[in-house]
Mechanosensitive ion channel family protein
Amino acid sequence: MDFSLAWQKLNQIGRDLMLALPNIVFGLVVFVIFMALASGVRSLVQRVTSSRSSSQSLARLLSRLAYVGMLILGVLVTVTIVLPGFTPASLISALGVGGIAIGFAFKDIFQNFLAGVLLLLTEPFKIGDQIKYKDFEGTVEDIQTRATAIKTYDGRRVIIPNAELFTNAVMVNTAYDKRRLQYDVGIGYGDDIATARRLIIEAMQGVEGVLTEPAPEAIVVDLAGSSVNLRARWWVNPPRQADVLDAQDRVLEAIKNKLTENGIDLPFPTQQILLHDQTETTDGDRRQQREGWPAGPGNVPEARAATSPPTGTPPLANPAE
């Protein structure tokens, strides 16, 4: 077996490598310099944007974009030094159809990236806000260019792709300084509604954390089966979940104590079941089977047994026959 051709190829590769070694070393040095420049540019952009904008997310976005842009520029310069025949036009032509395939393969990544950029620019919510998306609710920990991380109230982390947050409805609980809470309270039908309304409002006004403006209120919302339901509504500030739960706990305790101290009934759901002895002789007799309603004045319909012919009685003959 003749290995001379293979040996010549190896020698040629070695000579080419030795000739290109200075370019490789110089290219690596240039790339390290660009990495240092990218870190410096990132820090500079973050300081400048932080001083001119109150948005921490926007400052982080711009600093990341500056860092990535410097690294891409460094890679292009390094490749040009190592491979003198390389140009950006040759890179584009080399990608060709492969670039289109890569674009389709990373479509979701690009979509999430673009949505993350738009979220950071428009700022429908910021880091520290409490949001609700579908079944997930918690505090925003980080807004990255690909996904947003929230910490749920029970101490778990949820990663949500930015494209979903950008294209779907998101509830921001801390978008405003105040938040209104409500709870339905049932009183007995024998209780005076105006008195119960006044007591509920007085109870809410005496609770710490309930705002006086807008003032708390109580409105009738339902005439239920066993109670008259009044809806107590009050405002709190700040609107964070911990403050909301604390205020609701104090308000409900105050309302319950206030109503019971003043003799207002808080009825349980009740159900009335009426039983009767239904036989053929009493079926339809409203005097014996009233089922919760009075028989009424005067004569009432007789039982069906009294108005129906006995069983086995032949029908009357047709006179026409």
Summary: Residues 10-90 form one domain.
